[in-house]
Design brief:
There is one protein chain. The protein has 90 residues and is mostly beta strands. The chain has one domain. Helices cover 0% and strands 64% of the residues. The chain contains no helices and 7 strands. The strands form 2 sheets. It has a 4-stranded antiparallel sheet with strand order 2-5-7-6, with no helix packed on it. The chain has a 3-stranded antiparallel sheet with strand order 1-4-3, with no helix packed on it. Strand 6 and strand 7 form a beta hairpin. The termini are far apart.
Length: 90
């Protein structure tokens, strides 16, 4: 059985979150001022993996690492805009 879970982010450049194997990250948005990732997971999956999430502000430099774009969120009434990626080459 699948469901969608929310995973709050810490607002740091790089962090690890633990997701069930096979989880599909759907989006990143804010709930209040808290950025969160929503992922579709299998409730029957007992194996977990660490996923590296990277967050970049607009205009911040990025290296050539392999990443998958998740989405963009804004905080402080749009004063700060951040772009979130799943790091794939770790």
């Amino acid at each position: 059985m699948k469901t969608i879970f929310k995973y709050p982010l810490m607002q740091v450049p790089e962090e690890q979150i633990s997701l069930p194997v096979g989880a599909e990250i759907l989006t990143v948005q804010t709930q209040g001022e808290q950025p969160c990732i929503w992922a579709m997971i299998d409730l029957n999956e007992i194996r977990y993996k660490n996923v590296t999430i990277e967050t970049f502000g607009t205009g911040h430099k990025m290296d050539d690492a392999e990443r998958r774009y998740i989405g963009t969120y804004q905080i402080n009434n749009g004063d700060y805009v951040f772009h979130v990626f799943e790091r794939l080459d770790i």
